[in-house]
């Protein structure tokens, strides 16, 4: 079974600084997708960024980028120029490339932005 | 356009009762998935429905069931409620949901279920 591990229960960063959230996963599949979701106190799970395993280039979405190390099964999220609105729980998630659209989530990292 | 809508927002039940949660996907989306999120943990996959057929089931007891209607909305039913069923129940929709779909899932705000 696939597993996703987020080893940092909590992180904090000063506003405008850069922070990196860690995620490792375990799978024997070669075709899969990785995601970072953000969950603010409003509860809605918001997709931040997505990476296809077959792509070597790291995904980037504005201030959010990932460092995808396939051999090491590592998928970290970097947030540049942190803003107060970035404060939330961040979940790393895995999905097989085929079959049911089952997302396997990590335990989450609570990110605090200090003004 | 409206996002994924879930109802009710919050629900309080007692042990042994039954509950039905509802989800309307984003317009045009045909796949709906359900997740359970216990406080302090990541969501756990319960079901996926696509084109009104069950396409995936997580490790949940038979007390949990779901269905998808012709308009692609979905209901999650939980029978014989236990204290441990207290959680946030999230619904997610995607454009398509076949075995080779790479469409991302978009989540609703969830239903907070409290069991007394």
Describe the structure.
The complex is a heterodimer of chains A (115) and B (116). By secondary structure, chain A is mainly β. Chain A is built from no helices and twelve strands. In chain A, strands 2, 5, 6, 10, 11 and 12 form a six-stranded mixed beta sheet that branches. Chain A has a four-stranded antiparallel beta sheet with strand order 3-9-8-7, with no helix packed on it. Chain A has a two-stranded antiparallel sheet with strand order 1-4. In chain A, a hairpin with a 4-residue loop joins strand 8 (64-69) and strand 9 (74-79). Chain B has 116 residues and is an all-beta fold. Chain B is built from no helices and eleven strands. In chain B, strands 2, 4, 5, 6, 9, 10 and 11 form a seven-stranded mixed beta sheet that branches. A four-stranded antiparallel beta sheet of chain B has the order 1-3-8-7, with no helix packed on it. The N and C termini of chain B lie far apart (37 Å). Chain A binds chain B through residues 4, 33, 35, 37, 42-47, 50, 52, 91, 93, 97-108, and chain B through 3, 31, 33, 35, 41-45, 48, 50, 55-58, 88, 90, 92, 94, 97, 99-110, 112.
